[in-house]
Amino acid sequence: MFIASILSKFRAHQRYRRTLRTFTQLNDHLLEDVGISRNEIDAVARRQYNQ
Questions:
Q1: Within 10 A of 23 (CB to CB), how many other CB atoms are there?
Q2: With left for phi above 0 and alpha for psi between -120 and 50, is residue 41 left, alpha or beta?
Q3: In degrees, to the nearest 5, what angle opens at C-alpha 20 toward C-alphas 35 and 26?
Q4: Which distant-in-sequence residues (6+ apart) come within 8 Å of 26 by Cβ?
């Protein structure tokens, strides 16, 4: 159970990093199309981390 918890946190952190990397690579126009601003990227990525 302890290992499953660690594995779950590790996978969640990977999702966070992947989301963060993806959004930071987009230009401002594409971010606007998605509906977020550059200063919201971390918050959006953190929501992914908490799922």
A1: 19
A2: alpha
A3: 55
A4: 34
Q: Which residue type occupies 19?
A: T
**Domain boundaries of the chain, sorted by first residue:** 9-49
| Assigned token pair, 8 | 């779950």
For 26-47, the DSSP string reads: S-HHHHHHHT--GGGHHHHHHH
pLDDT tens digits in sequence order for the chain, 51 residues long: 899 999 999 999 999 999 999 999 999 999 999 999 999 999 999 987 776
